[in-house]
Every structure is written in structure tokens, then in C-alpha cells.
Amino acid sequence: MDSSPPAVAITGLVKRYGDKTAVDGLSLTVERGLVTAVLGPNGAGKTSTIEICEGYRRADAGEVRVLGLDPVRDATALRPRIGVMLQAGGVYSGARAEEMLRHVAKLHAHPLDVSMLIERLGLGSCGRTTYRRLSGGQQQRLALALAVVGRPELVFLDEPTAGLDPHARHATWDLVRELRADGVSVVLTTHLMDEAEKLADEVAIVDRGRVIASGSPEALCHDGAENSLRFAGPPGLDLGSLLNALPEGAKALEVSRGAYRIEGDIDPQLLATVTSWCAQHGVMPERLTVERRSLEDVFMELTGRELRS
Amino acid sequence: MAKEQTRGTFAPAPGAAPPARMILAQSALETRMLLRNGEQLLLTVIIPTLLLVVFSSADIVDTGDGERVDFLAPGVLALAVLSTAFTGQAIATGFERRYGVLKLLGSTPLPRWGLMVAKTACVILVEILQVTLLVVIALALGWSPHGNPAWVVLLLVLGTAAFSGLGLLMAGTLRAEATLAAANLVFILLLLGGGVIVPLDKFPSGVEHTLALLPISALSDGLRDVLRDGSGLPLGDVAILAVWSVLGLGAAARFFRWE
Ligand SMILES: Nc1ncnc2c1ncn2[C@@H]1O[C@H](COP(=O)(O)OP(=O)(O)OP(=O)(O)O)[C@@H](O)[C@H]1O
Ligand SMILES: [Mg+2]
Fold this sequence. Notes:
heterodimer; A: alpha/beta; B: mainly alpha; 0% strand; binds magnesium ion
């Protein structure tokens, strides 16, 4: 029995900049104790939404509750309980990495051990370097350290792995997993689909200021999704005859010369039908694979293929 | 499994530090940032010191009757307040806003009022260092101050309030680059036209009366009345500074954009 309010509850959120509507009636609930990834094209309104949850920007309409509190009215009660990693900046350009981390630790009652954090995030070599001289990836890691140093219940990470090398990315993923294991709720934004797939319990896809799909990565990939079967063979096969053999609703196409795709409910029966059709026609189906849609496919389908700015 | 027994490294334990500790830490950090910044030191220490030494030693500007240093020391003290409370604070805060420092601090337990108290403490601390340095140099140059030190402190505090309000107003409304340019320009204009090294009576009388209403003129003139002429509390100058303080701080509180 857990009657505590959700980590984040947003209903009908609207944020305008001048006559531009960045967030347009967005609703989202984030459960506690989970990692929730917010995905969306550039300019979708992710940062705006997160910064409203942090109490930094003000909503034009709608209701936002973070840990059951109003981010603006209850800021004093809320701020010790959340940790924030900004998409960029946040540190005095003349401050040293370790100095800034120790400073933010001092603002909290029970901070983490700063030396441990520095080691965990591979910031040891940058302790004495001023912020403006850190590399982009080092600045990112410092920002992550700043978000967690106060032992928050809930962290907002705005693109935590943008610009990180593979090593640092894995260190960040490990840290996020550990946060989750230790009971911290995590909300992160990302453009990396594999990151969301690997890390997130829940995914929300945001486009033009609204949530257009949400659920676990598995559910999103399956939900109404047509799986597909691919194989390669000689070009120009008679797909009409193949289609006659397949169950109703399936589709067969030659995606490119000699590359075939069957779409539909791919079950063992269908697979057998395809291979026996191939056998009858003396076709050797090469590189035969059954594919599930990836999160990236779902994302591209939902948000449209063209890149919007 | 064992999760119930052993609390993990990151197990939540949220809480704010006591306000006094937060403000102390923030004041110390702000002061370190300021003292580490070369341009800020040029503005707050080197320029006032050079002006005091050069203009006291050589007869460049006609400062009227009496020792040149007796005219210049109060003016340079006013300039020191201007450089720290207005120019330095405006530029630093403008860039903190621009680079998301205010945003990040806004997500920590440090309240906004606490940040403002810390900024004020930092300004006052730097001013104490400046005043000490300038007083020692002026005394070495043969300065003989008069008057009631309490009035001097009152004038310095009012000047600090007026310039802080104007500086924060600028930092909180303009872009950081615009603040940088404007704060430096204002510094130079007020240095020349605020009775700091050039006596206001060198200007045509219409201009002189307008210039006298500037906060820098009120501060340098008030300090000069006390320190050079040994007069009582210069009420006119105090009134001008008080009005600027109320207007500046009020407008800053009203228009400062944190976003
Ligand atoms: N301070 C601001 N002033 C004016 N417009 C803004 C401001 N912040 C964001 N916008 C606009 O609002 C829209 C949403 O921006 P936001 O930063 O929330 O997007 P995002 O989803 O975080 O994008 P990205 O993936 O590129 O980080 C964009 O069109 C952006 O131009
Ligand atoms: Mg963003």
C-alpha cells in the first residue's frame, strides 16, 4: 500500500514564449521509484516541461505537482528533495569542478561523499580545473554529480549522456541504475533510443508540446505494432503468389532489389508458410530474420520522418 | 533481497542545510569567484588605486583649494563602491543568469533571498578590502580625513544599496553582453561626470545641477563634505542616495527576470 503521490503529475500543461506555444496541453504521470525517459524531437518541449517541474519556469496553464507539491508555491519544501541536471551550464565559469560540487553539497543536510562521487564519475583529473576549461563531457559529468550530491528523492536529468564518450555513457547508465536500485525516481530526456530502451521503465514520447505515446518500451514496441520478417533472395520474385499463400492482412514487399519484407503477425505458422513457398519456388531465403519494431521505429513513425526544428 | 537491510549509497536523504550555513557558504563562494576574476580586480582595485595615486601626485586636474588628495580620496572611495556594488555585481550576476548558475542554484535548497543576502555580504566584504587599501594609500599620500566616521559608513551603506539595486536591475533585465557593455560604459561616464576626480563645478551650471542628482555625485560629494570639510551629516546627499536606493532596489525586485 503506497498512498504517496506520484513523483510527477502533470495535467494540461501549457507554456508559451511570446506567441509560440512550446508546451501545448501536456499530461504525464511519473511513478515513483522508476526511471522515466522523455523522448521527443528537438524543440518538442521537453526542457520547458522539466524546467517547469523544477519550479524554474512558470506554466501558463495546467497543473503540475512534483512529489505532491506545487513547484513554485512549495519551492522551499520541494527543492531539497529534487536534484537537477541542466541541459547546459549551471556552474560559475571560474569555479573549479570539485569546489562547485563541495559547495552544492554544503547546501544540503546529508550530502553524498564528494570524493566518492568524483571518483565514480571519473572527475578526478578535473578537480582543480575551472569549469570553462573542462571538456564538454566533463562538464556533463559534473552536472550529473551536482544533481545527485544532495541525496534527492527525485532527479531530473536533461540529456545526461549528450556528448559523452562510450565509457562515460556507461558510467552514467550504471549510476542511473544504481539510483533506481537505491529508491531514487529518475526522469531523464534523451535522443538515444537505445538508451531509453535499456534504461527506462517507462517512456513518454513528446511531440509539439504533447505526449503522443507512453508506456514501457516493450509495450510501445508491441502495441499495435506489426512485426516483420526479412530475407534476401533473387530479385523480382512473384510476390503475388506469395501473398496468396499468406494469411489475410499480411503484406509482402520488395524493399530494395532482392531484399524482401513480410509485415504482419509473424508467428511460427507464417514463418513455415514463407519457407515452404520459397522451397516450392527453388528460392534460398538468405539472412532470414524476424524483426520486432525498435523504439526508434516507433519514434520515427509517431513523430514523422522529417526533422523539424 | 538484502536491499531492506543495507541502504544504498544513493538512498534518498533529502534536506536543506541550516540557512546560516548555506548563506555563509554562498558568500564565501561568491567572494572567491570575484577575487579570482582578473577583470573584476582591475575594475575594483587597480583602477581606483591608480586614479588615487596618479591624480594626487601630479597636477592633472584642478581640484580647487587644498591638498589634491583631500579632494580625491573621498571621490575614489565613492568610485570603489560604484565599481563593486554596481559594475562588478551587474556583470557577474548577468553572466550567472546567462550561464544557468542562477537556474542551478534555484534548484538547490538555497532560497533566493539567501542568494541575495550572500551577494550583499560579498559586496560588503570586497568593499571593506577596497576601503582599507585605499585609506592606507591615501594616508601615505598625506591625506588628513575629518568628520564623523559614522556618517561616512552611513553614506557608504546607502551608496552600496543604491548601486546594488541599479546593478541588479541591469543584470536581471538585459542580456549578459549588453550588461557587460553598459555597466562598463556607465562606470566610465560616472567616473568622469560624477565628481570623482573632476569637480562638478568645472561643468556649466545647468549640467552641474543635473549631474549632482546622480548617485555617484551624491556619494562623492557627501563623503567630501564629511571627510574633507568635517561637516555634519550631508542631508541633501543622503536624501538623493535614499531615493536612488528605493527606486533601484524596488525596480530590481519587480523586474528581475530569473529565466
Ligand atoms: N526561453 C525561451 N524563449 C523563447 N522560446 C523558447 C525558450 N525556451 C524554449 N523556447 C522554444 O520552445 C520550444 C521548446 O523548447 P524546449 O527547449 O523545451 O525543447 P526540447 O524538447 O528540450 O528540445 P531539445 O531536444 O532540442 O533540447 C522550442 O521551439 C524553443 O525554441
Ligand atoms: Mg531540451
